[in-house]
Please model this.
Amino acid sequence: MSDLSNSPAADRNKQPILDVLNRILSEHGAALEIASGTGQHAAWFAAAMPQWIWQPTDADARMLPALASRVAEAALPTLRPPLLLDVMAPEWPSQGPAFTQEEKFDAIYCANMLHIAPWATCAALMQGAARHLLPGGLLITYGPYFEDEVPTVPSNLAFDEDLRARNPAWGIRRIEDVTAEANRSGLTLRERHAMPANNLLLVFGFQ
Model:
């Protein structure tokens, strides 16, 4: 039995997310994953999408050894070794050679980061996506969001309160605020997909 770190939530949501990815992405391409964490999503998506190259990353250097072990266990030719990448850094990745103009991505995927990071990471994510997406590429974010015209479920209100008690810089973000940051970087909200456990998958593309 594997002794790798395991997120029960990642195990629950990986297939519903994959179902949407299969609908919105082309048959082949290259994806950059931001905040890969345990690597469960990266390994699952890479196995299910063999025509896609998948590049996992994380901002926490302490996560990289476990993430590298997940990649090694998966033993998939399209799943690259993880890189250290902090969205706030002026160049991506944060260590090693920066991505070149020739090394852009068809998709950038970021799950469950915006609500457990300072708000400034949202603008940094949008700016970085605009730099590193190919024309026609998509930025895909997943997690809980507040929406002005949609009643908030009690569980998300409680979750937001818990996040802010743990760190005042954290908290569930408003879709309207996230979209405004995307617009400033030349991206627009293309699709909104309701997901299990009161989460949303948002798809942004170039304006």
